[in-house]
């Protein structure tokens, strides 16, 4: 009788349980969230794998003007390092959040975790190498890139320290934070497209670009019209140290340089908004799942007790040891 009562009458729910139960998910909403966010990360990463061909697909697919800065020197090394590490990390990390992998393939989960940490840190090094001129290299874009490096590096360090102290619920929390921060780059693209269309319609937005970059864009993309569109680049004293203001305009008759200006104008702002949304979103998720955190903390308590750690249940970085929270005790 009990099993029959627990069995859902809804055929869709029964079907979904057949999908997520074998993966180790116990709650439908956990599987739904994993499917949405992991699916978005998987799709984005697979779509970007073609950019591993730096001199081919990346050169042709990047924003107008970006290849001018990335085509040689340490910045080419940086973009190559960044893409060659963050894309594999983006694929591997999806497996880390599948419960059955953690339960049935613990050794793989650990080795995969170490690999992801190494790849993420290397990708951050590459990101810092290109930050000065990524998507126009505006100051807000550079600060955004630096903050993302700081957040993901510190988040990874916190997750690593806590798992070494067998503080599993804190390891989970910091891993989720780290990859939600990193995943903001996907939401950034959506916001950037919308913002670019808006400022193109409203008008009055400009970005400073060097004439050398503009000439490079025309030679790569458009082939003609440079002197007609930007005569100040050819006039004596027509520029400010070789720089001119380029209107931000995407579509509607805008030239290739104006498209690059529009993308560069909105990239930093879109990134800050995306990072804010992801940062708030992951904290809401953690706040709404206290029972899962408590379950994992009880497991941490047992493992820390067996390992002989002092303060079992709180051997890692927990609020009751480092803040003013009440001391945690295992429930009877």
Structure report:
- The structure is a single chain.
- This protein is mainly alpha-helical and 332 residues long.
- Helix content is 71%, strand content 3%.
- It has 15 helices and two strands.
- It has helices at residues 2-6, 11-20, 28-48, 54-61, 66-70, 73-96, 99-104, 106-130, 139-164, 168-202, 211-222, 226-229, 256-288, 290-307, 319-322; strands at 206-210, 243-247.
- It has a two-stranded antiparallel ribbon with strand order 1-2.
- It is elongated and about 85 Å long.
- The mean pLDDT is 91.
Blueprint of the fold:
Layout: H1 2-6, H2 11-20, H3 28-48, H4 54-61, H5 66-70, H6 73-96, H7 99-104, H8 106-130, H9 139-164, H10 168-202, E1 206-210, H11 211-222, H12 226-229, E2 243-247, H13 256-288, H14 290-307, H15 319-322
Antiparallel strand pairs: 1-2
Helix pairs in contact: 3-6, 6-8, 8-9, 9-10, 9-13, 10-13, 10-14
């Amino acid at each position: 009788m009990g099993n029959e009562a627990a069995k859902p009458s809804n055929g869709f729910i029964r079907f979904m349980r057949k999908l997520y139960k074998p993966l180790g998910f116990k709650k439908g909403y956990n599987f739904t969230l994993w499917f949405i966010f992991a699916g978005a990360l998987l799709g984005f990463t697979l779509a970007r794998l073609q950019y591993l061909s730096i001199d081919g697909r990346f050169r042709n697919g990047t924003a107008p003007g970006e290849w001018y800065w990335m085509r040689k020197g340490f910045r080419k090394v940086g973009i190559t390092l960044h893409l060659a590490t963050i894309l594999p990390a983006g694929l591997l990390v999806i497996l880390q959040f599948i419960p059955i992998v953690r339960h049935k393939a613990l050794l793989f989960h650990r080795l995969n975790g170490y690999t992801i940490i190494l790849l993420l840190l290397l990708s951050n090094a590459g990101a810092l190498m290109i930050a000065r001129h990524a998507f126009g290299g505006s100051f807000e874009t550079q600060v955004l890139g630096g903050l993302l490096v700081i957040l993901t590096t510190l988040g990874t360090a916190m997750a690593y320290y806590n798992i070494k102290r067998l503080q599993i619920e804190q390891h989970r929390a910091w891993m989720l934070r780290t990859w939600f921060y990193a995943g903001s780059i996907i939401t950034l693209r959506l916001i950037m497209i919308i913002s670019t269309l808006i400022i193109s319609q409203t008008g009055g937005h400009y970005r400073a670009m060097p004439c050398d970059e503009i000439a490079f864009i025309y030679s790569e993309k458009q082939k003609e019209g440079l002197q007609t569109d930007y005569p100040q680049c050819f006039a004596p004293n027509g520029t400010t140290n070789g720089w001119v203001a380029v209107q931000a305009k995407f579509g509607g008759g805008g030239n290739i340089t104006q498209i690059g200006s529009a993308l560069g104008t909105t990239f930093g702002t879109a990134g800050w908004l995306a990072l804010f949304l992801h940062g708030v979103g992951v904290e809401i998720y953690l706040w709404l799942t206290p029972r899962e955190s408590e379950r994992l903390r009880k497991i941490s308590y047992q493992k820390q007790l067996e390992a002989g750690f002092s303060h079992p249940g709180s051997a890692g970085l927990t609020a009751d040891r480092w803040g003013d929270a009440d001391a945690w005790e295992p429930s009877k």
